[in-house]
Amino acid sequence: MSEYSDCYYCKGIVKEQNISREIWWKGSLYIFENVPVGICVQCGEKVIKPKAAKYMDLLLRKQTEPRKTIQVPVYEYAQSPA
Ligand SMILES: [Zn+2]
């Protein structure tokens, strides 16, 4: 059932998991939950299927109503504590 070829970097087995992906699009941050992504069991390299990438791109371009909107606090790492 593997739809993924072996890891490009280490030739490890790539297994699919549903994870969250953050995507910056036109200067804004979008989060997609439960995205099927192939993850190398050896080195953790993530591979996204072109079909999945295209689908997320389509949702953004169609300006689909999101399931929910969250606020994200942003900090500037200005200075380390002494
Ligand atoms: Zn790998």
What does this molecule look like?
The structure is a single chain. With 82 residues, the chain is of the alpha+beta class. The chain has one domain (1-82): Ubiquitin-like (UB roll). Helices cover 15% and strands 33% of the residues. It is built from 1 helix and 3 strands, in the order E-E-E-H. The chain has one helix spanning 50-61, and strands at 14-25, 28-40, 46-47. It has a 3-stranded antiparallel β-sheet, covered by helices on one side. Strand 2 and strand 3 (46-47) form a beta hairpin. The radius of gyration is 16 Å and the shape is flat. The structure holds zinc ion (ZN). Zinc ion (ZN) binds at residues 7, 9-10, 12, 40, 42-43, 45. Zinc ion binds next to loops.
Keywords:
82 residues; Ubiquitin-like (UB roll); binds zinc ion; three-stranded antiparallel sheet; alpha+beta; 3 strands; 15% helix; flat
Brief summary of the model shown:
The protein has 82 residues and is of the alpha+beta class.
Question: How are the secondary structure elements laid out?
Answer:
Blueprint: E1 14-25, E2 28-40, E3 46-47, H1 50-61
Antiparallel strand pairs: 1-2, 2-3
Bound molecules: zinc ion.
Our measurement of the CA-to-CA distance between the termini, rounded to an integer number of angstroms, reads 53 Å
Q: From the alpha-carbon coordinates, what is the Rg to the nearest angstrom?
A: 16 Å
**CATH classification, class level:** Alpha Beta
Percent helix, as a range, is 10-25%
CATH topology description:
Ubiquitin-like (UB roll)
Give the strand content: 25-35%
Structural class: alpha+beta
Order of helices and strands: EEEH
Largest sheet: 3 strands, antiparallel
What is the average per-residue confidence, as pLDDT, rounded to a whole number? Answer: 93
At CATH level 2, the architecture is Roll
Shape: flat
**Quaternary state of the chains:** single chain
How many extended strands? 3
> Helical element count?
1
Ligand inventory:
zinc ion
Instruction: Please tell me the total number of domains.
Output: 1
- Lateral arrangement of strands in the main beta sheet: 1-2-3
Point out poorly predicted stretches: none
